[in-house]
Amino acid sequence: MKKLKIDIVSDVMCPWCIIGYKNLETALAQLSDEFTAQISWKPFELNPDMPVAGQDLNEHLAQKYGLTEQQGDENRQRILEMGEQAGFDFNFDGKRIMINSFDLHRLLTWAASEGKQTELKLAFFKAHFTDLVYLNEQDTLLDVVASVGLDRARAKQILDSGEYFQDVRSEQNTLQQMGITSVPTFIINDQFALTGGQPSDAFVQAFKQIAEQEAQQQ
After folding, report:
1. Phi, psi of 40 (to 5 degrees)
2. What are phi and psi of 46, to 5 degrees?
3. Helices (DSSP H) in the chain: which residue ranges?
4. Stated pTM of the model
5. Which positions fall inside the DSBA-like thioredoxin domain (predicted)?
6. Residue 121: which of 22, 2, 4, 1 has the closest Cα?
7. What number of other Cβ atoms are within 10 A of residue 136's Cβ?
């Protein structure tokens, strides 16, 4: 079995990050006889200057990207379809907001030390994109943390303090120095990168190419 180390640079606020991850899951399932994968999530903030209160998503997209209402509708339809193909449900029916995700990254850094980082990340994606809960409200956020078996009181202690602040900032700085400016970015074995919400076939092809290259280097 060949081992893959996969670091996923991602923001919970990014729909393409969960689409890309679900397609990665599919690829790894197809290649389960050949590869095992160790997955970790790295922090990226799409909107580091966003206030804690957040912003209406449609208003945010119009301001940041200049999307018209029609373009926004087309974009949502594409995301819905890509999500369906990947096996993830997006819900665009209610009021959605864009928030600052820094506290989520602090909790995800802690969750890694508890062996539950991917579980928490996926729970955050579902909460934000499917259940339309506001992850900038502490009680709601703590409910999501507790739902994956992490200690609620410990999570509150982290949120109320500066714990993991420097860890997240340090990782963000390292990624910026590596030239990573968009998400998702999948860094494989510390030397290969795939960007965007890639289809599962792209991952399959990449893993096979990587295995061939590494075999040649030995």
Report:
1. -135, 155
2. -65, -30
3. 15-30, 57-65, 69-86, 102-113, 117-125, 138-147, 152-159, 165-177, 200-217
4. 0.95
5. 6-207
6. 22
7. 19
